[in-house]
Design goal:
Blueprint: E1 2-7, H1 19-22, H2 27-37, E2 42-47, H3 51-61, E3 67-71, H4 80-87, E4 93-97, E5 119-122, H5 127-139
Parallel strand pairs: 1-2, 1-3, 3-4, 4-5
Helix pairs in contact: 3-4
Length: 140
């Protein structure tokens, strides 16, 4: 099974950015743990702060990857273009958020992406990625 994790804007700052909200572990540290936990899964990751690069990664994943775990960051609440990209591919996508978006600012309660995703995981810290990955393994 091939799973691609796509991280959006500011997620390259995990470990230092607002540790009370996002924790103090870098994504690279967590990704190593995730890969060790699921050795039978071919995991890859991509991060960009640029909306178009996230769209290109989704297009490239289509039919080449079994599933995408997407943390689009703030683009979740603003990007119709990313929503259209998810709707336009056949590869299933699970939307992920590290923080509980419903316990935050009102504008974070809206996801343009969610209606096109297989599911959504929010509020479990970096473990949200693990839960999303488990959703693909359940379908196997």
């Amino acid at each position: 099974m091939k799973i691609l994790i796509i991280n959006g804007p500011n997620l390259n700052l995990l470990g230092t950015r607002e540790p009370t909200v996002y924790g103090n572990q870098t994504f690279e540290e967590y990704f190593s743990i995730l890969k060790a936990k699921y050795p039978s899964v071919q995991l890859d990751c991509f991060q960009s702060n640029v909306e178009g690069e996230l769209i290109n990664a989704l297009h490239k994943a289509d039919k080449n990857i079994d599933g995408v775990i997407l943390n689009a960051g703030a683009y979740t609440h603003t990007s119709i273009a990313i929503a259209d990209a998810i709707a336009g591919i056949s590869t299933p996508v699970v939307e992920v958020h590290i923080s509980n978006v419903f316990a935050r600012e009102d504008y974070r309660h809206v996801s343009y992406l969610g209606k096109h995703c297989k599911g959504s995981v929010s509020g479990f810290g970096l473990k949200s990625y693990d839960l999303a990955l488990q959703s693909f393994l359940m379908d196997k």
